[in-house]
Design goal:
Elements lengths: L20 E5 L9 H15 L3 E6 L12 E4 L2 E4 L2 E7 L4 H10 L3 E4 L4 H12 L4 E4 L17 H13 L3 E4 L2 H9 L6 E3 L16 H6 L8 E5 L8 H13 L5 E5 L5 H7 L4 E4 L3 H9 L3 E4 L8 H8 L4 E4 L14 E4 L4 H13 L1 H15 L4 H25 L1
Parallel strand pairs: 1-2, 1-6, 2-3, 6-7, 7-8, 8-9, 10-11, 10-13, 11-12, 13-14, 14-15
Antiparallel strand pairs: 4-5
Helix pairs in contact: 1-13, 7-11, 10-12
Keywords: Transferase
Protein name: Glycosyl transferase, group 1
GO molecular function: glycosyltransferase activity
């Protein structure tokens, strides 16, 4: 009598978002407010609404910039010397490992290539769990702004080792995805774009009264900067371009929206500028809509939330032709894309907008039309779909062994 062989058990895995358990690791989830952190919190909120279970592992501080979405488990960290507003995650401590094991995630998501994320990737690989890495900024480019450009290839090599140990990456724009492919970081790369809150960012938020309170006349054309005041946002290029504009006798006002450690440097460099400080929520929408052109010379963004927010407010954008902005701005249609660091060309693009109200109107309207393509729920579902794909692929490979 022959005995039939028992087929190997097929690993069970979730086939929809409801019931999915996600462990998210972030070096900075809510203690500083920036586009990347807000995107992660929006993602967690969306997953929770769809019935998923999410635990976030990140440094905690006594006074975070905004409340964390979901359950936040603190990891050991210390303040980075010279940039105390940021913290460096130290280790996947025994306490965190116990919490992680008890949570028993289906997928691990890492959002920055720091020490804790490296340990989380090793933890997941030992257990055969799928790993997704999201790319939020071009860390390797930061050293250009601190006289350490020689470190860039070293950092890029370290990042390559990290990202190749992950099963897949998500990048916020196709232009950034192509950079990652060119750098040989990984070859399974999906797009996790960014959305814009149209209840906050819209042309109707424009306020001449608010401008007047800042000392800006109704007939003055405002060149705006929006973002954290840190050197890696291209503050030097912004300042040099504004100098060129002034030398050409072009009448304008500069409005700076944001705060950061380089505030004093920037204020000394642009003494005639209006510094509105940090703005949030509806106040931020009002500030952006009250600009006449946004100038974003940064090359470190992987998407460019500020660019999209300005476009949603019908404000034309002058930006560096770099990752992020290249996927948003249609050159000479909704704004201008200029070679990074090309100060004279930036100044000329700004001059055209300052002196031509019809051009501002046409390009602003085209930008607003483009911004309608970015829905947060649809964008975040793309990440959820990637989780489910990776879980399914890992289960199939396990069954074939």
């Amino acid at each position: 009598m022959s005995s039939a062989k028992t087929a190997p058990a097929v690993p069970s895995f979730p086939t929809e978002v409801a019931g999915l358990r996600v462990a998210l690791f972030s070096g900075n989830y809510n203690y500083v407010r920036d586009g990347a952190n807000q995107a992660l919190n929006r993602l967690v909120g969306y997953l929770l609404r769809q019935g998923a279970d999410v635990r976030v592992y990140a440094p905690k501080v006594e006074e975070p910039a905004f409340p964390a979405t979901g359950t936040l488990v603190g990891v050991p960290s210390f303040a980075i010397p010279g940039r105390a507003e940021y913290r460096f995650p130290l280790a996947l401590s025994p306490r965190v490992r116990r919490d992680l094991a008890a949570f028993d995630p289906h997928v691990v998501h890492v959002s920055s290539p720091d020490v804790v994320a490296h340990r989380a990737v090793s933890w997941a690989r030992r257990r055969g769990l799928p790993i997704l890495a999201s790319v939020h900024t071009r860390f390797e480019t930061y050293f250009r702004y601190y006289n350490m450009a020689w470190l860039e290839p070293v950092i890029e090599a370290l990042m390559r080792r990290f990202y190749r140990r992950c099963d897949a990456l998500v990048a916020p724009s196709e232009s950034m995805a192509q950079v990652l492919r060119d750098q040989r970081m990984n070859y399974d790369i999906d797009i996790w774009s960014r959305g814009v809150d149209r209840d906050i960012f819209h042309p109707g938020a424009r306020s001449l009264e608010w401008r007047r309170e800042l000392g800006i006349a109704d007939d003055e054309v405002v060149v705006g900067f929006l973002g954290r005041l840190v050197m890696e946002k291209g503050l030097d290029v912004f300042s040099d371009s504004i100098d060129q504009l002034a030398r050409r006798g072009v009448r304008h006002r500069v409005l700076v929206v944001g705060e950061g450690p380089a505030h004093d440097w920037f204020a000394a460099r642009l003494p005639q500028a209006v510094f509105a400080g940090f703005q949030g929520g509806a106040d931020l929408g009002r500030a952006v809509a009250s600009m006449d052109v946004l100038f974003n010379p940064s090359v470190t963004e992987t998407f460019g939330n500020v660019t999209l927010e300005a476009m949603a407010c019908r404000v034309p954008v002058v930006a560096a032709a770099a990752t992020g902005s290249q996927s948003l701005v249609d050159d000479n249609v909704s704004g201008r894309l200029i070679a990074p660091g090309a100060v004279r060309q930036f100044a000329e693009a700004l001059r055209c907008y300052v002196e031509d109200a019809d051009l501002r109107g046409r390009h602003g309207a085209a930008g607003e039309e483009r911004s309608l393509d970015f829905s947060w729920d649809r964008i975040n579902q793309a990440v959820a779909d990637t989780y489910l794909r990776l879980v399914r692929q890992k289960a199939i490979r396990s069954r074939r062994r």
